[in-house]
Each structure stands twice: as C-alpha cells, then as structure tokens.
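Q: Could you fold this chain for me?
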Amino acid sequence: MYFLSGWPKRLLCPLGSPAEAPFHVQSDPQRTFFAVLAPARLSIWYSRTANGYILFFHITSTRGDKYLYEPVYPKGSPQMKGTPHFKEEQCAPALNLEMKKILDLQAPIMSLQSVLEDLLVATSDGLLHLIHWEGMTNGRKAINLCTVPFSVDLQSSRAGSFLGFADVHIRDMEYCATLDGFAVVFNDGKVGFITPVSSRFTAEQLHGVWPQDVVDGTCVAVNNKYRLMAFGCASGSVQVYTIDNTTGAMQLSHKLELTAKQYPDVKNCNCKEGHTDLVEFLMGNADIWNKTGAVKLVRWSPDNSVVIVTWEYGGLSLWSVFGAQLICTLGGDFAYRSDGTKKDPLKINSMSWGAEGYHLWVISGFGSQNTENESDSKSIVKQPGILLFQFIKSALTVNPCMSNQEQVLLQGEDRLYLNCGEASQSQNPRSSSAHSDHRTRREKSPFAGGGLESQSLSTLLGHRHWHVVQISSTYLESNWPIRFSAIDKLGQNIAVVGKFGFAHYSLLTKKWKLFGNITQEQNMIVTGGLAWWNDFIVLACYNISDRQEELRVYLRTSNLDNAFAHVTKTQAETLLLSVFRDMVIVFRADCSICLYSIERKSDGPNAAGIQVLQEVSMSRYIPHPFLVVSVTLTSVSTENGITLKMPQQARDAESIMLNLAGQLIMMQRDRSGPQIREKDSNPNQRKLLPFCPPVVLAQSVENVWTTCRANKQKRHLLEALWLSCGGAGMKVWLPLFPRDHRKPHSFLSQRIMLPFHINIYPLAVLFEDALVLGAVNDTLLYDSLYSRNSAREQLEVLFPFCVVERTSQIYLHHILRQLLVRNLGEQALLLAQSCATLPYFPHVLELMLHEVLEEEATSREPIPDPLLPTVAKFITEFPLFLQTVVHCARKTEYALWNYLFAAVGNPKDLFEECLMAQDLDTAASYLIILQNMEVPAVSRQHATLLFNTALEQGKWDLCRHMIRFLKAIGSGESETPPSTPTTQEPSSSGGGFEFFRNRSISLSQSADSVPASKFSLQKTLSMPSGPSGKRWSKDSDCAENMYIDMMLWRHARRLLEEVRLKDLGCFAAQLGFELISWLCKERARAARVDNFVLALKRLHKDFLWPLPIIPASSVSSPFKNGKYRTVGEQLLKSQSTDPFLNLEIDAGVSNVQRSQSWLGNIGPAHQEIDTASSHGPQMQDAFLSPLSNKGDECSIGSATDLTESSSMVDGDWTMVDENFSTLSLTQSELEHISMELASKGPHKSQVQLRYLLHIFMEAGCLDWCIVIGLILRESSIINQILVIIQSSEVDGEMLQNIKTGLHAVDRWASTDCPGYKPFLNIIKPHLQKLSEITEEQVQPEAFQPMTVGKTPEQTSPRAEENRSSLGHGSIPQGEVGGSSLVSRKEEDTTRAEEEEPFQDGTYDCSVS
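A: Sure. Below is the predicted structure, expressed as structure tokens.
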C-alpha cells in the first residue's frame, strides 16, 4: 500500500543553543504549511520542495504582494509568470505572525484539539476547555471530567459510573468527525470515547464509553474514513477499536503487534542457555516491551489507508488499515550495519504526514544511552533534526476504481511505477507464471522445450524492476502533488490528476499530453477520481468558473481541450467513480449512486455520449458519505448464473459492491417482479430493475477485485470476488457449480467465502492465472563507502537506501485446501482441472501437500479429522501424483516421512508405479526415499531394477548415478544418498559418441602388403578422466564392482544378440564400458554374427543407411568399363574420409540434397583417371569396377582420426583444380555420381560405423567387420580383413561363419536387394581367396589388445586446430603425408602415431 523510497531528507535547522532544538511538528489541514515548535521558537515551513531542499522561512513582517522565494527561469523559457495562480503555486509566501492574545488556563495544557471552529483544550487539572479561535471562552464553563458518566455501552442506564479519583486528566485525545466524539487516553492508562448526546457541548450532554481491558494506554489516533481509534499501549502494541453501531460500545477490531518475523530480537530473551523455544515464546511479549518501550506516537496517513507507529526506544513501523505490516525499521538493514554491528534505532519525538502522504515529517533524536565506545558517542547526532521520509503508494489508496485492472500502479509525488510485461497480455489467452522463488525450486526436465509457456511466463511476470514514468515537470509546477492516477486495461496509457486539471501519457509514444489552454486546466478540480473506458478518460470534476459539478469524457487521441470533451452536469459533488463494461457508476456527496451508460458516437468531435440510467439513494444505509471507501458495479451475485432463466440475465446481473468503512455491502438487482423480455423492449428505453436492500458480505475489507471478462474453462476464478482484509489475509467469494450441468440442490449455497493467508500485500489479482501481484520494500546498505569516524553524521549511513520490488504469489493451493476442509472435493477437483495447464500447477499440488503434512505431523495435539489422507486422495486424480509426493518428501524432514507415506502409500509400491509408467527420474527420487527407510538389500534390489530399465532406455546420466548409488550401498554408505558428480557429464540427449572426443584411434592407411611379423592390433584407447573412468581400475576385484559389471556385460550381450550396434556404441561411450576387452572374450559367443542378412538389414535401419539401388540407365553407364571409376569412388570416399567437407552439413537434409549440393562444389575430373583405370580388371555387369592399386592403397581410414587419408584426397583435389577445364562430366555421369552419393547414409552414421569397425577390428570380431564393410560398400575393408586372415591364425569356425554368411548375403541380394550385386561382384576375387585359405590355428593372444600408454593429454591437436590448416587445402601435398600415395606399407600403426603426431591429430567426433 505504502512503501519507503530512497533515503530520508534532512532539513537544515538554524540550531543554536539546545533550547532551540525543535520538539513538535504539526501541519495545517491542507498540509501546505508545517509549524515546527521549539522551546524558544515557532517556525512555519512551506511543504513544497525544490532541488532536494525545503525552503525555510523566518518569520518576518511583510506588506503587499511579496514572496520570500520565487522560481527563476532561463530566458526564453515557456514557463512565464502569466499562468493563473502563479504566485500561489510556485512562490513561497512570506508570512506575518503576530501575537494576538494570551489566554491563561491556570494549569499545564496536556492536549489541544481543533474541533470545527473551536479549540478543545485538556489541562492537567482534569478540565476540558472549549475555546474560540479568537481566543475567547465565550462564557462557557470548563467541563470537569469527573462529572462525565462512563459505561461499557450506551444502552446502559443513563447514570454511568464516574471517574472515581480526584487527579484524573486527559493525556491525549483526538476528535473523530465521522463518529462525532473524542477518543481519549487518561493519565492512568485507561482509554475511552466521549460523545455529546445532543448538539450541546456541556457536561450534562456528554457521555463516555470505555473498554474495561485496556489499562496501559499512552496515545491515540483516529481514522475518520474507517471510524477506527488506534490506542498505543505501554506494552508496545496498538489496539484498534471501533464503535458498535447498535450498542454504542467500543469493540476491538484488531491489534498491531510485532512478531519475531518482523522484529528478530524478540527471541533474544534474557534467559539462561538451554531453555526451550517455548520459554522464549512465553517471554516474547515481555521482551518486546523491554526492547521497544511503550508506543510513543500513532499517526494515520491523509488518505486513511495506513498508520505509522513509533516507540519510546526508537524505531517506526507502518501498517495497513486492518493490520497488515508493510515496513518495520527494527530489523534488517535498518537495525544493522554492513559489518553486522547493531545501530541505535531512530528515536522520533514528533511526526506529521505531508501532502497526499508522500512525505513524513519527523523530528528525531538519534542514539540511546548504550553506546559502544567513547568515539562513537561523540559522533552521535545529539541534537534533534527534521527529517523527511519519502513514500510511494498504490493508486488503489485514492482511486479504488483501479481494482478491476490486472496491473500494479504505484504513484509518488513526481513519478509513477508500473509493472511492465503483463499489460499487453491481460486480454489474451495466455499461460501464466509463478513467483521467482517457485521457479528456482521446480525440477526441470532435460527434455523441456522453451515453448510458448515459458516465453509468456517471463513476459507475464517480467522482472523485479518497475517501469518508472516521470510525470511532466510542466504539469507538476502548477499542480503538485499528484492526487489520482489510472492506467487503461491494456497497460499502454496512464492518466494523472494533480491540484488542477489532468494530463495523460502514452507508454508507446513516450509522450505526455497536457491542456493546450492553461486556463481550462486551472478551471477544473477533479473530485472523484478518474477511469479509462477504451480510448476515453472519464472523470468527475468541479468547474470553478461555473461553480458546477460535472462528469466529463475526453478522447485520448484528440487534443486535450474542453472543445473535445463530452460534459454532463451533476447534482452533487462526486466522491467516487468507476467503470464497468459500458456503464459508469458514481457515488455522490448526497449519499446517492448514479448509473450512466457510455457509448462511442461516430459523429461530432466529442465522440462519446453519457446518459443517466438509474439513480439509487443510499442515505438510509450510509451515515456519512466520507465513510464510503469504494463503489463498483460487478456481475457477481448470489446466484451463479446456472439458476437464472436466461443467459442475458447472467450477463446483466449487475450488483453494486460498496465498501463502507471496511464493511463490504452488496446490492443485487431485484428479480422478484415480472421480467421484461429483452427482444420486446428497446434497449435505449429499457427500464433497469431496482436493487434489493443491501447485504453485508464481509468485514475488515481494504480492497475488492472483480473482472467483467468471461472464460468457460475458468469460471470459478473469473466469477469469484477477491477481497484483501489486511492482517487477516485474503478472502475469495467462490461460486460453486454442479458437475455436468446437473440441477443444483436447492438447499446448497451457490457461493462460499474462503479465507486464506498470503505472504505479500496484494495490489492486483491475475484472475485466470491464479496469481496475486504485490510489491515489497527492499533495502541496500551504503555505509561501507564512508569512514567510521565521520560516518554517523551521514544519512546514507544511518539509513539504508529503500527500493520497492515487485513480487507475486500463488494462492490456488490455499483455495483447494479450504474446499477439501469443507468436504467440497468435487468443487476442488473442478477448479484444479481448470487450472491444470498452468505451468506451476505441479508446484501448487506440492505446496498443498507440504503445508498440510507440516501442520499435522508436527501437531502436539491429536487431530480428530486429519486432512492429509483427503489431500493425498485428491492428488492421485492427477498424472503428476508420483512426482508431487516424492518432491514433497525430499523437501521435508526425514522424521515426517512415515506420516506422509502412511497417507499416500508405500514408497516401494510408488517406485514400482514409476517403473511401470516409465518415469525413471521420479523412480530415482523414490530410490533415495527407500534407501533411508528400508534395509540395504531392498535398496539394492530396487536400484538393480531401475538400473536395468535405465540401461534399456538409454538414460545414461541416470545410469551413471545408479552405478555410484549401487557402489555406495555396497561400501556401507547407505545412510547418505550419493552426491552428484562434480565433473560435467556428457549430455544424454544426443545419440552420438561424445565419450570418444578424448580418444586417439589410428589405423594404417594400407593393408595390402603388411608383413605378417609386423602386423599387430594396437589398442590406443584411453579412458576419460572422471568417475566413470576410475571405476574400472579401482576396486576391480570388489564384489560390488563385479555385481555392476555383470549387469553391464549382460546388457551388452543383449544388445549384440539383438543386433543393436548403435545402442551398443552409445552404451560403451556414455558409461566408459571396456568394449574391446569384452568383445575379445565374447568373440565366439555373443559377438558372433549368426545371421548376416538380418544383421545387414538391422544396421541399415538403425543407422538410417539407404539400401543400394541400380539406376535404370546403368546399362550405358560410363562406369561399366571402369572409365571414371576412380573419380566416382574417390568422390564417394571423400565424403566420409575428408571430415572438413561435411562438418557444416545438417543431418536433417536428405541424402540426395546433400549429394547434389556437395557435388556442386566439385570441378571437372582430372586426366589421370584413364591411367588409373587401366590398372585393374574390367567386368561387364558391374556397377562399380574394382579398385585400382591406387585406390587400394587407401584403407578404410581412421574412425575418429580421418585426417590421415585426407592427404591423398587433398592431392586429388589439387589435380582436379589444376586441370579444371580439361574434362567435363556429362549429365548421365553426374546422375551416377549423385546416385552413389544418395546411397550413402548421414555423415554422423558414417563416423559411428567406422568407429565400430575399428573396435571390432581390434577385438578380432572379423565377421562383424565384414558386415560393416558390406554396408559401407568399400572393397578395401574386405581386402584388409583378408590380409589379417592371411597374416595371422584365425579360428576356423569364424572363417566358416564368414563364408556361410557371405553366401547368404549373395542369395539375399539376388532375390531381394539387387543393388548389392555390383559390390558383391567386385569382391568376388576376395571371396575366392577366402575359400582358398588353409585352416591353420593361430594363438588367440594375437588378438588381445595391448594398451599404449597414451593419455588424452598427450594426444595430438584436435580437429578444431587441424581444420584451419587442412580444411582449405592450403598445405602442399608433400607436407601432409604425401608419402602415403607411394608407400606407407612398411609402417605399422604405432610408429605412424609416434612419428607423425601432428598429421594423425585426434578427430573430434562429438555427435549430438
């Protein structure tokens, strides 16, 4: 409602002796001038500030039209002195104060109070004097308090009890105009209310009432608008009373008390260590009294919406009307310095609110008697000074018609604060947001996409900062301060009202629009606020020149001029104004309500017209017009629309909501008489139904929110009425709908009032989004910028810098809980289902479960009807039940788990439900619950289940966590769940082999003539650093590791048996599985290919590799005779072997498109094709001719280090470039090349297949190598395998299996896949060699991999480094492995890797 802003200002007093230090400040009724009283000085201050200073006027005698201070404008400035009221508004007047008369009352004066035209004075001798302002007693006798009768209420006998002691007198008093009486505090601490029974103010006509339980009163303040009396007490609390309308007794409305939350020192009791919290709690009240002292001052703000309280020992606190605390300076940055030391609280001797509540004038004295050391005590400000605290406040405090908006608007004396982000979406169907605190706590799925929901989430809530609009200085100069402000429904336009006229601002154009004619502006005073209707501004004003009350409508887009305004004269002054749909409702000073229709007109400059619809007199129900806080028209009624006869009635069922001094009164249309059918009547002449007598809906109401929008999906929220009730929290008047449109029971209420507490002060309600928006004060310390010795003098050190932050809160869980408490589960379900699409709905369920669990499980008393089972049953209606329960459990103490799971079910059953629902992440959370609640054997059993399921589904992150978890159980660490590893795990969303980016794998370029003695398979795999790598070397003989390994082996065996090579590669890469050594052991068992055809088909499918096809034009193909053989094959090969040509290719592009775009970059082939083609046999029926010697020299290349073969490819490209124009390809030749490229799979699949080929080669699984060679259709691979078979002894059973498998593939190709026939024909010579090989047994050790001690840190530069040098062919052929074209046959893998580390650089094949 009210919020502190910035630092307070210090006014420079001309302090001389301590006798001149001020001790009291008081404003005039208009709060324009402030009188500051010192023992020997009375000074008058002018409230208008300029340049950060208050203009001080010494009292001098002046004559004529003289001013102490006048503004000086630069030459040529438009602000000239020709404006009306220039002197009064912008010049500080010189005042003349004269001694008129001295009146001796012969006793010390205790209290002065202005009553209309008289002055009421209370003296210490127990007398009340009524004095005229002229200083005459008017012959009336002083009233002796002992003769005034007091009773508990006014219904008692007339002769009440009298004050029964002689020295009684009034310590403090204040007059209440709306109650017509005085709230008084006596010197003995009793409090009361004295009212004249008749108009005569004599002892015989006065009667007093008092509450019997208040005996420690110290001061009093009266709120005229809400008819409240706030009595400060010596205990440190403030008791707020009101007068009962029927009995006249004083009723306690509420108390303003500090709690440990607002004042943390409450718990620092002076009791011995070891005492329980209960002792601290019991001593808390006395401790507050000890630390704060008695209440010293209480002051209501000018708009009566907040009250400020200060205590004897210092500090101040701000509360809303009905007790919601907004600010307290006894804790936080107000009470402590940045180094943690405690400050002395601000002691306030006197205070008074400034104009419109934007300032609080304070006469202060800093420091208590307890100082830390002498140097500190010297620097404390000993003398009192005048401080000005600055406030910004909600527009609702003065212009309650803003309550049907979904924006938060705050107004300061010269600027506006609005929440940017929500505005443009308030009318649109949108998803909503949650508090920032809630967002951080929600567990986000790694697969959650940033769709529309998350986008509008941030747009809706924006951030903690405000959109600040500086009010036009031209308007402020003559119209300070701002009185009203309003924003339109879309949040794009703002209007403000100052002393005269008004101005409006567009957030889109960033421009203010003021009256062109300043006389028109100065001639109108807005009285009842203003509101927006579409593009129009509706306001009620007083026309000064015509002395007429008017209702005006201005069009935003036209010039601000009365010529463009529609003016309607009214009978009485308008106090409040509001707009509902196309109707304007005004409340007038004669206690009447008038309804107007407003409509847009197409003709004339006014463009809008207003007509009176109905007038309703409220004088019977309203004792004083000033008591009406707000008036609004709504569609809310006791009937929820289903029972109404016609939908039109539901839409037009307007009710008047009136907030009368905190009482919410509703007047509905009276539908008991004959109904007029709408089609029979002219809408312009239709007589509106009368209103029923008023009904009280709620008490202690500060604000009301309702909307005129409709949404069938969210009827509960949009047809509800939202109330803010101060310290009592919020209330919602919720409609109850029968399910499936059944007829409702006549005995059931159709609405219900539900109370709930929220942690913020509500300023706006987002109806569909189930959100409350608010604001909160935050503080920043700057004391570290100043040195310690001079620090105490600086305001920046004494006070923190205050800022206002936006905040929001979910309330849906409170409403659902209240419905369940009242056995309205069906309504709760309807409401929850309508909100299930909100992004924070899972959090709503979690909050409800958590709050009920905490309350019931920690209750010291037995709960007769516990709510937790009902809440648990309710949550099971939603698919998020399992996640909700486990998230709640993990945020709750372990001690409460048994109570929780007794209601929601056994965690073992819930775990199994998660597995059945394939929700493995939630199952993992339940595993931690089971680990703490069950024996290790049960945890191991469930963890094994989850581990196997995670392996099957490829949830690699979860698998890694499960490995740690199982090891922790085995090593006796089951008390604490395993912590998340600190090293960054590879992303599990990709299907690639990220694991191998740290591995260096190299194969020899040619395997044609490698000597048998030199050939050996070298394992150059290095494990990645991190937990997954260490697992295999540490505690390898541990039973727990063996248990985990058995599961991993079983899964790998299953993948191989099901021919899921891609999954096997991912599995090994993600979990650091030692694939080669395991394959060596399983070579004759699981790693044996039983069905070559099935394996080939499965690989085509898994790796998205197209089956080869024969084009129709292959009969006349130039490739038949091998003429362009090398170009075709080299082009095909280079797509896979030169990694730099394909790095930017998106995997989503079709193969044909990729081939064509890639071919577009290639020039014509070179001349050496013919010579190259003459080296091999030619076959008439083959699609591809056999590889030449040159082609055979190029091996399959390296799986992850493909740069070795790029040297030869680069050489070919050099020849192509040199002979660019010597040969051109025909259309048919290009078609063949593109056809070949189209038959290749994605680049990612190529890399993976080549890597797997390398793995199987090293493990000696030659049958799998044959299958991969077939799918890649590269005869060099088959050739290399033959070389291995010739140079080393291979198991005869494997050879037989290979022969059988290849024959089966040949038969399958002949019948089902003729595209494979050309390649099978190419490798026929190799197959013949295979059958000729004698079956000689070789030592199995030849295939055991030997580890090369090469760590990832020693590997050669990564592909990112090589790319710059090799990617553009900038290095000559001879420098980059050019010898591979001639002879690299004598070098084995290890020597190549050691001698040419930079040419065999690691290829970074990170695939995501």
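A (continued): Residues 405 and 612 are 25 Å apart (CA to CA).
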